[in-house]
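Deliverable D4.2, example record:
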Amino acid sequence: MELKNALAICLIALFSATLVLLIARTLDVQTAGRLEPQLIRIVEELEALRKQGGIAAAAPADQPSSAVSESESDALLVYYFHGNTRCPTCRDIESQAHGAVLADFAAELNSGQVIWKTLNYEQGANADLAKKFDIMAPVVLLAKMQAGEMVQWKSLDEVWGLVGDKPAYAAFMREQINKMLGRDKPNTQETNSASPDTSAPADLPIPQ
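Output generated by the structure prediction step:
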């Protein structure tokens, strides 16, 4: 029990430090303001889990592979990266992102132009991607593939500040995906080739 409590305390510190970093990364005053209550909420969730006797970790088996298949070689990959520990807010982020993709890009999903992928960034098989994308906390990330090569990617850190506002979250996802698909003129200050681009509907059930 003491070991579980110590783990929970470490996770609280990790999430707190990570979200502070995400605030700095977004460099957006409005987004930073929205992130603060989310940080408080996550700390409270982890503290509640600690009091219940520990935090359940996600099973490491049967996880999707980070390898890009032939069908994904010319597609926009919408990743949701999660860790072994999955707090309620983290699950909300995944659920709302997936719901937005299904609602607004159903045709693209069916054609293979857009592909949804969920990966555990703490698994060894996904370590290279986690390092490439500098992932330290659960996040939604877009990666544009052309001829099997990743030509552009963007980490959507802003989702942490929008998770409490479903319409705004869905609108943000729609805007960012459309930009990656070339349907909206990208901001040259936010878009980089082969490097990070730093420019909902009802929730879906998350597999246990």
